[in-house]
Amino acid sequence: MTSEADRRTGIPREERGAITVADRVVTKIASHVAREVLSRFTESVGHVPPGRRTPRVTTSVRRAPERNTAGRDAESAAGRQAVLGEARLRITVELGYPSDIGAQCAAVRREVTERLRTWAGMEVPDLAVSVERLHSVHSRHTDQERVR
Length: 148
Hints:
The protein has helices at about 5-10, 25-40, 40-45, 75-80, 100-120, 135-140; strands at about 55-65, 85-95, 120-135. It is of the alpha+beta class.
């Protein structure tokens, strides 16, 4: 009786299936992680209106090229996580003011990069976090968008 693995070895690499991660999956992971990270900054969360707390993410995913691992050491290949591709992201957030804007953007960048590598097997060579709007305590209590 032959196992599934034994039958697959006879199929050429280019005819086997491949794992791909869709742009929208990467976008959802990045948005979820960014929202989770920003919720930890309590001084900022209270100032941002509920409808504006979801970060907007723009994603471009490129599939990793096929790699030939025949000449490599089997142990090092087993210890390394397979990279399925790379994602370039732009995350736009709205933050409360006053708050530590730099720390919030750095935390979003760090966590999104780490989680995409872990959850989706994606490298993130380019991730830009931009602040679209700051929400002040003073603008929250009035119907104005800007403090004068």
